[in-house]
Design brief:
CATH architecture: Alpha-Beta Complex
Shape: globular
Number of domains: 1
Distance between the termini: 46 Å
Helix content: 10-25%
Number of helices: 3
Strand content: 25-35%
CATH topology: endopeptidase fold (from Nostoc punctiforme)
Largest sheet: 7 strands, antiparallel
Order of helices and strands: HEHHEEEEEEEE
Strand order of the largest sheet: 1-6-5-4-3-7-2
Number of strands: 9
Amino acid sequence: MEKLELILELPGLAVAQFEITSPKTKTYNCIAWAAGETHRRWWPDKMKVEYWPPGVVREQTVTAFMAAYATLGYEACEKDDLENGYEKIAIFLKPGGTPTHAARQLPSGRWTSKLGPSQDIEHDLRCLEGRHYGQVKQLMKRPKRDSLFSGQTVTTVPTVRGKIECRAKV
């Protein structure tokens, strides 16, 4: 989709500044893109066609999506503002509570999304809210991966008995 086609599909883009940042591809979807993956699609389909993290229930609920992202060290947070030392994702839900989309925050504070089989875009978070994707209802964050040698928390790993925090010392 070119910009005009994207605006027709997602009217919130008409009043927002957004940039197309990739060519069209069906190799990955927005859920994988928010997870930082571009080599496969993520979706909790019952037939197990798409990738879904092992041990996470395959259902289209916010709880399952949060559990999937928790396997990457994400945990729930309240605000969508840029927070030093953290990466954030946003999960969009339809009014009935079904997850439809996920976006990832960029170091600039703007957001990036994969739009179905179309392109990736850089955008303001709330401009994708509406009929197509619903509303942002869940935010999650994790310590930035590039903080490995800064002495900051690198990752939080969920385990059977709780969480393990891994730290790097310089």
